[in-house]
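Sample entry (409 residues):
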Amino acid sequence: MSALETRFIEPLDVLFLRGNKLFGDPGSYGEALIPPWPSAAAGALRARRLADAGVDLAAFARGEIDHPELGTPKRPGPFTVTDFHLARRGADGAVEPLYAPPADLVISRDDGGQLQVRAPTPTSLTMDERQKLSARILSSAPLPWLPVLAERQRGKPESGYWLTAAGWREYLAGLAPAVGHWVHASELWAIDPRVGLGLDAEARCAADGKLFTVQAVAMRHGVGFLARVEGASLPKTGTLRLGGDGRAAALTPAEVAWPEPDYAAIAAARRCRLVLTTPGLFSTLLPPGESALSGAEGPGVRGGWLPTGISRHGDGGYRFDLHGVKGRLVCAAVPRAEVVSGWDLAQWQPKPAQRAAPTGSVYWLDELEATPEALCKLVERGLWTETGADSSRRAEGFNRASLAHWMSP
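Predicted structure, serialized as tokens:
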């Protein structure tokens, strides 16, 4: 693995972090996507690298220039985003990453209004128990275990919280992060709605009756994004064009104490949780005619919510085998799918829209067969196969994951 470089990206202006929803029609409302997909950081850093090298951007877009680090638009080089997170700079100047809450943690308030963090317990059910449960609760989960959160009464989960680096270390160690390790989004950014005018291209003026609204994101002082990249020498300082309209962001080096799992302890325990740290675009080997999406008929290749490396066996079980790590997938907590797209500057057209497992999705692996070195290799390479993968999306930082201890009930 080549050397890793980390940069802190701090906005100097409001950002337009657009998702995949169209806007611009009269009365439409463009929502911001926070944080943006890692492809936003990949595009900004690559554009800056090309500009510093004096590369003709039009010629590069046409594939006429093969950059030693970035390759070409159709055949990317070794440049790869390995981490992309929200981040904040402390009073001492140190930068810490902030993590999206994993799907196996539930944040709520107790009877006294105090914040509390609880974790569902993976629970094995017999066939008879499953049949009784399915009569009361609708579920599309095909796995033998279900994540169960025992409650005395119904409660509404809290949203908008982000996990600090210290809290993420606790989570990787198999603990429920303490309440003090959570930060609310209101401390990190504010939404600043902006009104836009549709333009008449022929008259070269504002078109009548075409007002729309788009969300601008105003980051708090010291809050930005943290990107870690391998396979390229990044500029140490300067500015980037980030997000819609290319708003300015400052680029600075950052020495970060990245939280790491205890690979030796996980290998010894022979079970773990696999947690997505960026959206997952997966392909999974399934029997012909079967799709992982709710049992619907399909080509038997697209896995949807199932990670790359999963295969369906004749006994109905799901096995994981990737980069020397083997195990049995027994349980999963996956929020509703999101759709990832983007804009291809080289082709000047939208990128294909792909369904993705959201950041924070959790998969429980049992009967784990792996050395500490293989577990580390899995995290370093991401959930991609050695061949046949989407090299563009790999370079942009999708399918990245971490490993965590199986949380004790």
